């Protein structure tokens, strides 16, 4: 439930659909959903999209470089963290 400026509870309806952004920056609402929304109605829009494969590749490369810098000798620090008697 949302509230207006006066604190009065408003019931919001929600729909979910898949769409794309056209070259002009517009998102098409399926006609059957658009007919359910009264003309001039104020809308609150949340847009979700998956990151590109470039993002996945970038993260994988960063993790690989991070892990490559880890040396077996570094495990002594993990032992100190896990060893309660060392505190």
Structure description:
With 87 residues, the protein is mostly helical. The chain has one domain (2-86). It is built from three helices and two strands; from the N terminus they run E-E-H-H-H. A two-stranded antiparallel ribbon has the order 1-2. The longest helix has 16 residues, at 53-68. The relative contact order is 0.06.
Radius of gyration: 25 Å
Mean pLDDT: 83
How far is the N terminus from the C terminus?
49 Å
Shape: elongated
Give keywords:
87 residues; mainly alpha; two-stranded antiparallel sheet; 3 helices; 32% helix
Describe what is shown at a glance.
This protein has 87 residues and is mainly alpha-helical.
Any chance you could write out the topology, listing elements then pairs?
Blueprint lengths: L1 E2 L5 E2 L20 H4 L18 H16 L6 H8 L5
Antiparallel strand pairs: 1-2
């Amino acid at each position: 439930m949302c509230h207006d400026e006066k604190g009065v509870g408003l019931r919001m309806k929600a729909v979910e659909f898949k769409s794309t952004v056209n070259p002009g920056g517009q998102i098409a609402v399926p006609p059957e959903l658009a007919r359910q929304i009264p003309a001039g109605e104020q809308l609150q829009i949340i847009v979700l999209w998956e990151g590109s494969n470039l993002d996945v590749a970038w993260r994988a490369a960063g993790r690989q470089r991070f892990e490559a810098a880890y040396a077996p000798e570094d495990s002594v620090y993990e032992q100190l963290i896990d060893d309660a008697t060392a505190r």
